[in-house]
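Work through this protein:
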Amino acid sequence: MNAPLPQSAALRPSERTLDIMRTLVGFDTVSHRSNLGLIEWVRDRLAAQGVACRLTYDADRRKANLFATLGEQRPGGLILSGHTDVVPVEGQDWTSDPFTLTERDGKLFGRGTADMKGFIASALATVPDMLAANLPAPIHLALSYDEEVGCFGARGLIADLQEAGFAPAGCIVGEPTLMAPIVSHKGTWRLRCCVRGREAHSAMPTHGVNAIEYAAELVVFMRDIAARFVREEAHDLGFPVPFSTIQTTTIAGGTAQNIVPNACELVVDLRTMPQTSFETLHQEILDFAARLDARMKAAFPETGMQVEFLAGVPAFVVADTAPIVDYARRLARTQGAGKVTFGTEAGLFTQAGIPTVVLGPGSIDDAHRPDEFVSLEQMAACDAFMRRIIESKLEGVR
C-alpha cells in the first residue's frame, strides 16, 4: 500500500476499517464469480466475536447472503445493508491492481471501494463497539449477492427474514451517496428481444425476413415512448434526469453483407419514475412486439419476435418526513435529502414493509469506472456515522 499523505486523524477512517476494507477489496467478487470467500471470511470474523450468522444460498450454492444480529434477538432494530458483488474490470484502464486497496492523494482505490465495500468495512469495524454498547434494540448486518445484475440475492435474504419472523424497524442501504440521505430512486428494468428472421440472398429480399429491420421497428417504437416521457410525464426536478427513460443498450445481428439477416437480439434498459407503472409499459412493448411477430409469421411461419424479461428492481420512495429519514439526517448531520436515478435494494426492503433510506460513503460518479475510489474523508465520515448509531441508542428506529 502506498504511503499515506499526512492528514488530520479526523479525515481518516480507523485502522480497523482500513484493514477490513483491504481484505474485502482483495476478494474478487465480480457478479459472475462466487462471493463465498468473502461471506465465509465475514462469518468467521463475526463468529469469533460471538455473533451467529444466517446464510442463504443461490440454487448452485456458489453464492450466499449473510444476515447477522448484534445484540439480543428481539423485534425492531436497524439493518445495515450492503451488497458484496462488484462490476467487472475487464477492458478498463486501471493505474493500480483493482483488487488491491491502494491509497494515494487522500483516496482509496480499488474495485468496490465506493460501491460498496467501504460501507461494509466501516460497519464491520464498528461491531465490537456495537456489541459492547448493550443497545436497547439490535443492529442487523445484511450482506447480499448479485445486486449489480438484478438484486437477486436480496430477494432470498428478505424472504428468509420474513419466514423467520424478523421485524426490523428500519434499514440503511449503504450505497455511495456522499453520506447524504436518499429518499427515492427510479425503478430499473431490463428486457431482451430476440428476433428470428429468414435467410435469403440480399438480392432476393422477398424470399426472406430481415430480422434487423423488424428489430429496428421495435427500437423506433421505444424511442417514441422515450420522447413521450419527455413531453407528457410529470417531471420531478429532484432527479438528475426528471422523467422516465427507455433505450436500447446493446444490439447484435446479421452474418454477412449479402445475406438477409436471420437473427437479431437487443437489450433494453428502462428507468421508471416511482409513479410510472412498469407493468403497463411492459405490456405496451409486448403488444407492439406481438403485432410485429404476426406480420413476420404471415410471410414465413417459422419467423417471429419474442420479448423476454431479464431483471428488475422496483422504484424506491420513502416520505421525506419518515422517522428513518429524520434519523439518518440527524446522524449524518445534514438537513437535506436527495433522489437518484441508479437502482438499489432499498425498493425491495420497502416492499417488505421495512422503512429504508439509502446513505453511504463515496460518490456513484466514482463507481463502475477504472480507478474506482472513495476518499479517506468520506470513509472517516462513515466511521463517525457508525459511532453515532451507537450513541443514538437507536432512538427513532426501535
In short: The chain is about 35% helix and 20% strand. The domain at 9-184+315-392 is CATH 3.40.630.10 (Aminopeptidase). The two ends are 41 Å apart (CA to CA).
